[in-house]
Amino acid sequence: MTIYAGTIVDTPGDPFAGDPGEALRQDEALLVRDGVIAARGPLAALRAADPGEPVTRLDGGLLVPGFVDTHVHYPQIRAIGGLGLPLLDWLEQYALPEECRLADRGYARAVAAEFLGGLVAAGTTSALVFGSHFAPAMEELFAAAAQRDLNITSGLVLSDRKLPSDLLHPPETALTDSADLILRWHDHGRLRYAVTPRFSLSASDAMLDACGQLLGKGVWFTSHINENLAEIATVAGLFPGSRHYLDTYARHELVTPRSVFAHNVHPDDAELTLLAEHGASVAHCPTSNSALGSGLFPLRRHVEHGVRVALGSDVGAGAGLFLPKEALQAYFMQQLLGPAGLCLNPVHLLYLATRAGALALGLDDRVGDFAVGKEFDAVWLRPADGSTLDVNLRHAGDTADALARIFTLATPADVAGVWLRGERADRAEP
Ligand SMILES: [Zn+2]
Questions:
Q1: 398: number of CA atoms within 13 Å, CB side?
Q2: Please, what's the b/e burial string for 196-233 (b: 16 or more CB within 10 A of its CB; e: otherwise)?
Q3: CB-based contact 141:129 (threshold 8 Å)
Q4: 391 CA distance to ligand 1 centroid (A)?
Q5: For residue 96, what are the contacts with CB-CB under 8 A and spacing of at least 6?
Q6: Which of 274, 213, 287, 209 is nearest to 245 (CA)?
Q7: CA of 385 to the centre of ligand 1 (A)
Q8: What is the bridge-based pairing of β-strands 151-155 and 67-73?
Q9: How many whole angstroms from 169 Cα to the centroid of ligand 1?
Q10: H or E stretch at 30
């Protein structure tokens, strides 16, 4: 057992549902037993209840729940920074050539190590990971994630048209390869499987039907939707009978409470209604949307329709793995929308980077906040003495103000500690 003492902040409430301030909670100490939070409250009270327990002091900065990234591409960790292109050109010129290289299992092993190391260094402890098109590369990702005890949901990416031929599967082998990976890795420790057609642009009705069959195995589902106007027009042409983009998935029963759709920058109201009715979630990826010029995410319309939204870094189109940067960019984009935007405050930002992701991934009974009974996945954001963030934290008026300074200024260099189920994940104990 260990008592962690510091400025401990989480968002057990929902800041979109009422007064955002009421969603925030702050405590002085957490008692962690076997990786699970056993008590929280004033340090003196926790010490009095368990006088023999060692205290780990985390002075300065804030201890927050580990970040939850709901959309990030493992094969693209070496392909960040391809600026200046819209989605379909970026895929062709930057992302897909790199994804082809994961056919080499040794290459995939190195990429998996870099990717997972990058997540931990950025304070991300749970992620819905868009996988590789190659089953051996998925073995490498799952094996490496199991070793680190990261909370990873991922799956083989499926496509049967309109991509480089190396990345295509016929639906029959998609079914057998995926079923084999599900058997080996779904619910293996903290790992889970997600059926992952790349997008319906590259997946025929036969492939999406195979995805529906796989979903019957109780696994998760993720894909892309409504990211870019040229993509949406192409999908409409490929599925002339569909009502809208979401319908290409819905008619194969792929819109469920276990479904997470990335982007949804350009939805129509019928799609938002359908997402809400089926309890599906949307991964909002603001730096990616900005880098590719995809558009300004209509967060207000999602919230008003009751659609669950969380954050994704969408690396490699996104600008890095650090979720606070996504939260800040989400804030900027809502400001730029003017009256159509939803003005976010720092409590919203912490919620979006932590508990909202846990809810979207169905992990809210285990992680995403520091409630008693949850697993201790945490990140300590503590800037170097004298840094601009340090100066600002010293002048913060209250906890929400401190969070605002963190979301505005923090970088991965300010990650001073990361814990996965109570074990120090980034380096030796402080
Ligand atoms: Zn993506």
A1: 7
A2: bbbbbbbbbbebbbbbebbbeeebbbbbbbbbbeebbe
A3: yes
A4: 36
A5: 163, 164, 167
A6: 274
A7: 37
A8: unpaired
A9: 19
A10: strand 25-33
Answer for the pair 77, 122: CB distance below 8 angstroms, yes or no. Answer: no
Ligand 1 centroid to Cα of residue 282, in Å, is: 12
Contact 85, 284 (CB under 8 A): no
**Torsions phi, psi of 429, nearest 5?**
-55, 145
Pair of tokens at residue 129: 């990971």
CA–CA dist 206, 192 (Å, integer): 24
- Lookup: tokens for 414: 């300010």
223 Cα–ligand 1 center, Å: 8
Kindly give the distance from the C-alpha atom of residue 239 to the centroid of ligand 1, in angstroms, as a whole number.
21
- For residue 117, report the distance from its CA to the centre of ligand 1, in Å: 20
pLDDT of residue 430: 43
Residue 261, strand partner residues: 223, 282
Give me ligand 1 centre to Cα 262, in Å.
6
Ligand 1 center from residue 314 Cα (angstroms):
5
User: Ligand 1 centroid vs 224 CA: distance in angstroms?
Assistant: 6
- Provide mean pLDDT across the span 194-208: 98
What is the token pair recorded at 206?
Answer: 């036969």
Query: Which of 155, 214, 148, 211 shows the shortest CA–CA distance to 181?
Result: 155
pLDDT tens sequence across 336-394:
999 999 999 999 999 999 999 999 999 999 999 999 999 999 999 999 999 999 999 99
Q: Is 99 helix (H, G, I), strand (E, B) or coil?
A: helix
CB neighbour class for 76 (10 Å; exposed up to 12, middle 13-18, buried from 19): buried
Token pair recorded at residue 404:
């605002």
- Going from the Cα of 423 to the center of ligand 1, the distance in angstroms, rounded, reads 30
Provide the 3-class DSSP secondary structure of residue 26: strand
* DSSP string covering 260-282: EEEE-SS--HHHHHHHHHHT-EE
Using a 10 angstrom Cβ sphere, with 0-12 exposed, 13-18 middle and 19 or more buried, the burial of residue 135 is: middle
| pLDDT tens track for 287-322 | 999 999 999 999 999 999 999 999 999 999 999 999
Nearest Cα to 283, choosing from 390, 138, 128, 143?
128
What span, in angstroms and rounded, lies between the C-alpha atoms of 371 and 142? 28
247 Cα–ligand 1 center, Å: 19
User: Is 271 within 8 Å of 226 (Cβ atoms)?
Assistant: yes
CB-based contact 307:337 (threshold 8 Å): no
CA distance 196 to 116: 19
Number of neighbouring beta carbons within 10 Å of residue 31 = 23
If you search the block for the tokens 């909370």, which residue do you land on? Answer: 151
